Structures are given as C-alpha cells and as structure tokens.
Amino acid sequence: MEAEKKKKIFSGVQPSGNITLGNYIGAIRNWVRLQDDYDCAFAMMDMHTITVRQTPAEMRKRTLELMALYIACGIDPEKSLLFIQSHNSAHAELAWVLNCYTYMGELQRMTQFKDKSARHADNINAGLFTYPVLMAADILLYQADYVPVGKDQMQHIEICRDIANRFNALYGNVFTIPEGMLVKAGAKIMSLQEPTKKMSKSDPNPKGYVSMMDDFNVIAKKIKSAVTDSEGVIEYRPDDDAKAGINNLLSIMAVMTDSTPEKVAADFAGQGYGALKGAVAEAVVEGIKPIRAEYDRIIKDKAYLKDIYTRGAETAHRIADRTLKKAYKKIGFIID
Ligand code: TRP
C-alpha cells in the first residue's frame, strides 16, 4: 500500500497590527500542534493587508515581526512552509482568474466587506471588495484540505468552496475543495474591555487586548483592569453575557494552565475577582515569557529570517505554480 499522504493545511495572518493573546491562543498555538499530522503552509498575508491603508515602513517591520513570532511560538520552518504572500506572484495571478468566476452578488453578501467598508468609508476600494477572491486563491493554490480559521472567516471559506466547485464543475477536478477547521469552543478569547466582543488587534482601545509584544507589567495591568461584573461570584456561565468578563478570564486561565474553565472556577470559588485577575495575569506573563525570549533572539537575526522567507517563497512558488498552470491550461491560456 502506498504510504498514507498527509492532508494539507493552509492558513495565514495579516501583518496588520499587534498579534494578540487571542491570536496566539485561538490560532498560532493550535497550528503548532497540527504540524506533525498535516502538511502545513502558513503565510504572512501582506497582500490582504493593503486593502486598508498602511504605513509602508511599519508594515515591513510588522511582517518580519509576525514571522519571527510564528517561529518563536513553535512554527518550525523545517516542518511547515512559512512564506510571505507577496513573494509568490501566483496568488495575484490565480486571484485574477477567480475574479472572473465570482459574482458581484456573492461578494456583496460578505459581512466582513460590509463591516470594513463601514469602518473605512473613505477608502472602499475594489481590493476590499474582492478580498475573499484573493483568499480563495491563497487556499486553492496549495490544494488545502483544511483551513484553520476563526469563526469570523468561515464565510470566506464558504465562498472559496463555492468558487472552487464552480470552477471544477466547468473544467474537471482542478481544485481540492477545502474545509474550514474551527478552533475548539472555549478557546475564543474576548476583549478585556468589552468581553462580549472578540479580542482584536484592530481594537482602537489597547486596553481591550493583550499584545504578545506588550511589556510584562503592561500585560499584568491590562488583565487586572479587565471589565467584570458587580455580582462578585466566580462562576463559569458561558451562556450568560452578564458573566462574559469572568468567563473570559476563566477561559484564559484554563488555556494557560492546561485546565478547563469549570475547574479554574472551582479552584477560585469564594475568592474575590482581584485574586483571579492576579493569577491570570501571572499565568499569562509566565506563558508568554519563553516565547518572548525566543522572539527577541530571532528578530535580531535578520539573515536567518531572510533565509527562511527566501526558501519559503521558492517552495511556495513551486507548489502554487502547478495549480496555476493547471487552471491556466483549463481556461485556454497557452502555457507552453
Ligand atoms: N482573511 C484572513 C484574516 O483576516 C487572513 C487570510 C488571508 C487567510 N488569506 C487566508 C486565512 C487564507 C486563511 C487562509 O484572518
């Protein structure tokens, strides 16, 4: 029997802001675990990032920082493909093709487009509109079976599947139809200031999120000033919005100590919120410390980073080109 082929995974993060504790817990940490069982590719999605105006020098810096952070968190560039999206022109090329197989109406329904165009009303550019098509190209180029993403990205996975199915129906099996891979419930980290909302790196209020780059005393301070409730009872009630702040602290503690929110709640039963916050702050700082030490080492080593992304780009190009050429041939482009 043929050796069993590993299933493929593709995912990425935009270098658009500070990577938060939420990104780490909800995404990167889980990717680290997937590396042995799947053939993984993870990318810095800089082409998506320019759908919103960026400061060029900052964006360059953040892209490298993001890559260093991935590696510091445990993404092993010898095991997983790590690259920068704009280094592989196949993404733009397939995106153009797929644009011609995507309907305006489909894109108009995307909630992220509606949200972002409301937030950036002065810059509703065509890229923001066709963003999901580029994302579909990202995924389909690598013939990914699974795409680990947060719930907010599931609609984009759905449209990617629709586009791929439409293309395959016309031309045969060109693309693997990918499936979204949702992170386990309970690992979704909420804003520290508005705990019914997801912790987000684009939150205008920095107190709402813990950045993986924050000073340790800032991290502790942010957690200690997390919004809770006036009930004064430590209980895990995941369906009770009034308890959202405490639920979030319990979830963070559970992840950082390999426990469950219920167990953490039992451990702290009868204690004040201050005690819980102090313990969560300490657990988070202790958890982030070794990552930061690694990060500080890696970010200084520009030659190492360049080597990783240069090799990454080559591999990414080689893999993606196979798919691109297949699609080009099917639609009638001359490829040789
Ligand atoms: N849109 C994703 C986000 O903002 C980032 C992204 C771009 C992505 N292309 C992707 C994620 C492909 C997974 C697969 O989070």
> Going across the major beta sheet, what is the strand order?
1-2-3
Q: What letter string, H or E per element, gives the SSE order?
A: EHEHHEHHHHEHEHHHHH
User: Strand-residue fraction?
Assistant: 5-15%
What is the makeup of the main sheet? 3 strands, parallel
Total number of beta strands: 5
Helix segment tally: 13
Which molecules are bound besides the chains? tryptophan
* Chain-averaged pLDDT: 94
Unreliable sequence segments: none
Radius of gyration: 21 Å
The helix-and-strand class reads mainly alpha
Give the overall shape: globular
What is the helix content? 40-55%
Q: Measure the end-to-end span.
A: 35 Å
In words, what does this structure look like?
The protein is mostly helical and 336 residues long. The protein is built from 13 helices and five strands. The chain has helices at residues 21-34, 46-49, 56-73, 90-99, 104-108, 111-119, 126-141, 154-171, 216-224, 244-256, 261-268, 273-300, 302-331, and strands spanning 8-13, 39-44, 81-84, 146-149, 179-182. The strands form two sheets. The chain has a three-stranded parallel beta sheet with strand order 1-2-3. A two-stranded parallel sheet has the order 4-5. α3 packs across α12 (273-300), α4 (90-99) packs across α7 and α9 packs antiparallel against α12 (273-300). The model has no long low-confidence stretch (mean pLDDT 94). It binds tryptophan. The site of tryptophan (TRP) has 12 residues, from β1, α7 and β4.
